[in-house]
Structures are given as structure tokens and as C-alpha cells.
Amino acid sequence: MYIGAAYYPELWEPEEIERDISRCREYGINLLRVGEFAWEKLEVREGEFDFDWLEEVINRLWQADISVLLCTPTSTPPRWMFAKYPEITRVDSDGRGEVVSSRNHVCRTSPLMREKNRAIVEALAERFGHHPAVMGWQIDNELFPYQSGCFCPQCRAAFRDFLRERFGTIEALNHHWGMTRWSLSYASFEEIEPPRPSEWRHPSLRTAWRTFQCRQTETFAREQADILHRLASGPVGTDMMPNNVLSYYRMNAPMDVVQFNHYDPASALPDLPFSYDFLRPIKSTPFWVTETQVGWNGSEVAENGARPVGNCYVNTMLPFLMGAEANLFWLFRTHPNGHELAHGALFSPCGRPYRVSEEVRRAAQDLKKCETFLAQSRIRSELAIHYSTVAANNFDSAPLLKDFSYRSTLRDCFRRALGHRNVDLIDTPHSPDGYRVIFSPFLTTLDRNLLDRMTAWV
After folding, report:
1. Which of 18, 370, 394, 396 has the greatest number of CB atoms lying within 10 Å of its CB?
2. How far apart are CA 79 and CA 99, in angstroms?
């Protein structure tokens, strides 16, 4: 089992990296997640890869008995790439290309962007695919359709193709979407434009656009997973957020391990089992928490305040008790400059530990004592609650009830009421086999496949 943290060796001098390795050993950190934002240092100029510096770091970690979760850097292409190939830039709903000033500003439909992704992922896998320190792989970083997705000409054309494949004819689309109301019927698929956030958006159009953006994100990740499975060893995953925009089942179908990021305030600690009960049934393998805050959260402003004494210890241990194999903090050491300076970490920019660092060390010591027992234990549940990605997206497009939150209602009215028993939260594609009782509240649709499976199960 692993207690780890995100680490950015590209920010530090070699002597500081050595000190950080010593800090890892002192505080029980046995896994570091590296590489996710380092593309410009890995590919200095087009086609010129420099992995020597990264290999030196990985070798040193291996010598210190610290494993590596190696990331593909595809959320941060270098500035030279955007300058040479502006068509890879995500375009907002007003037709403006994103300013290259942070991360995740790529068009995930762009064939050229995907070609560049494949090149660097193949190069990384060929170099580090069987390195003994690399225990697994993370694809990209927190993939989901940022700011309603990309509205470039490539995405708009692909969206029309998506709808054409889904409905066959424009008449069928008009019928299913009720477009005769308000005289909205389309004469052809070419007339369809993505919904703009500033408009009173048709709920079916909005839901279809989001579904399309999710499908592009899924194939964006799947292409990288296929390369890693071909060239590398170790489980492959992609770290996901708890917003349920993307289907965890579809995104993780080509993956080996479910990876999950959360940044809940200290007061929300009792509600974390809701997320873990959802993650655990997706695959037979234990899930990994790839990001959680060790102290306060924040990019430009420190948020959520200091953690009460003991809160960090519980946040460190809890996922292991509910089916996880790894729990990693963001981040190991606060950045010395640039973005996200206000975020908490295990160590300050000058390397000083915080109070919560001691709680992590104690958790690492305690985990060592019981990891054999935990690794051999499995939570078995005969009770499940449907938590549907389709319903979550439908309620987002058309909430129907003022201030209604699908996730919060499931958590507060069902998960808490049944929390004294082992309970799985499952999306509707999950098999009902093995459960004695399944609650299915607030399903907005009942497709034929689900109806047939549930009828046969009953």
C-alpha cells in the first residue's frame, strides 16, 4: 500500500531533490507522482526529447525505495507547440482561442493534438515502461470538458457527425428533442450549433453537447491507455474529479485502476465514504486516491482553513479502510513560484514540515502495521444505490426543482440512512448480480438495456 504525494522535480535543484528524498523516507512517503506538467522540459523542441533529467530522479527514488507513479504530460503542451500549431488550442463559445496561461487549454478533438500526444506518450513508455521504480501510470490530469468544452470548427463538425450517427435523420432528432415547440426544427444537421452558456439553452441540445464532449475526452484518454498497455508494464489509470460529468464506467473501461481526486473541506470528512462507496465497485482492483489536500486548499487564495487536529490522519487512513491501495496528497512541497502558491502541502517551499505532516507520518506508521490485513480484506455488499451519470447530467441541463442537487440528495437521504451497512453506489451500467436490494431514486431515463437487466435480476 502507498502513501504518496505529487512532486515536481523540474522545479528544484538536484541538492534540493536529495533533501526531499530524505524527507520522504523520514515521513513514510513511499510513492511520488511525477511528470504531469513537465512537457516543455521533456520535449524542448519539436521531436527532441530529453528524458535524462527525469531518469536521474527516478533512479534516485528507486535507490531510496520510493516508487513512482509516472504521468503523461498532455494537459500542458509547451508554448512553442501552440505558437506553431494554433489549431490545437481550445476555443471558447464566443470563438476566441484560449490564452496559454495555465493548463488544459487544448482541443481534444484535434487530430494534430492527438498525434503530438501519441508521440510523447510512446517516447515515455519506451524509456520508462519497464523501469522497476515505475509502479503505474496516470494519463493527463483531471480530464473533463473544461468551460463547456471546445467550440472550434473541428469540434462543431464532429458534434454534427455525433448527432448524425446517433439519430440517423434530422427528422428523428427534431422528433426526439421536441423541436416543433417554439418553431425550432432543424432542416439539416449542418444547421446545428453548440449551445452557448449565455443563452437559454435547449436541455436536449445542452445534454447532447456535454455527452459529445465527454466522448471526445474518453477517446483522448483511451488512445494513451492503448499505447501504455502496448509498451509499458504497471497499471494504467486517469485521475478523475468527483463532479460526475464524465462516466466513471466509460472512462475507466480501458483502464486498469480507478484514480480519484478530491478536495473536500474538513467538515465534509464524514461524507467521503459516499465517494469511496461509488469508486470501489467500478473495478475488481483497489482504487487509488491520486490527489487530496494535506492541509488547506487554494490556488490564489488559501481556502477551507486549517485542519482540526486528527482530521488529516483520518483523511489519510480512511480510503485504505474502504478499498483503496494508494492515497496521495497534493502536494509534497509548496511551489516556490508560479501558479497555486496558496495551496497547502506536506512541506513549505523552504522544506519545513507543517503540523499536519506529523499526522501523515503517524498514519504511515500505523498503515504499515495493518497493511497485510487490509490488503487481504474486501468489502462485500448486498445493498446498492444507483448513482447515474446520465441522471446527473440531465439534472444539470434541466434541474426541474429549485436548488435540487442529485448528488447531495443521494448522499443525505439515502447513503447516510444506509451507512451503517455496507453499501455500494453503482452507475446504471453496473451489473445487478450479487445484490439483494437496489435503490434506484431519481433516474431520469430508463433505457431498454437497463430495463431488461433489472427485470431479469428481479
Report:
1. 394
2. 11
pLDDT at residue 16 in the model? 97
- Are residues 346 and 288 part of one domain? yes
pLDDT for 364 beyond 90 = yes
Whole-prediction pTM value?
0.96
* Cα(457)–Cα(380) distance, integer angstroms: 19
Q: How many CA atoms does the CB half-sphere of 153 hold within 13 Å?
A: 2
Structural domain including 188 reads 153-197
Provide the number of structural domains found in the chain.
3
The per-residue pLDDT for 99 is 85
Q: What are phi and psi of 166, to 5 degrees?
A: -75, -40
What mean pLDDT do residues 182-200 have?
93
What pairing do the DSSP bridges indicate for beta strands 48-49 and 43-45?
antiparallel
Q: Answer left, alpha or beta for residue 146, where phi above 0 means left and psi between -120 and 50 means alpha.
A: beta
Tell me what the mean pLDDT of segment 220-229 comes to. 99
Q: Which of 2-16, 73-87, 98-112, 115-129 has the lowest mean pLDDT?
A: 98-112
Domain co-membership, 273 together with 242 = yes
Cell reading at 25: 523516507
Mean pLDDT (whole number) for 57-67: 99
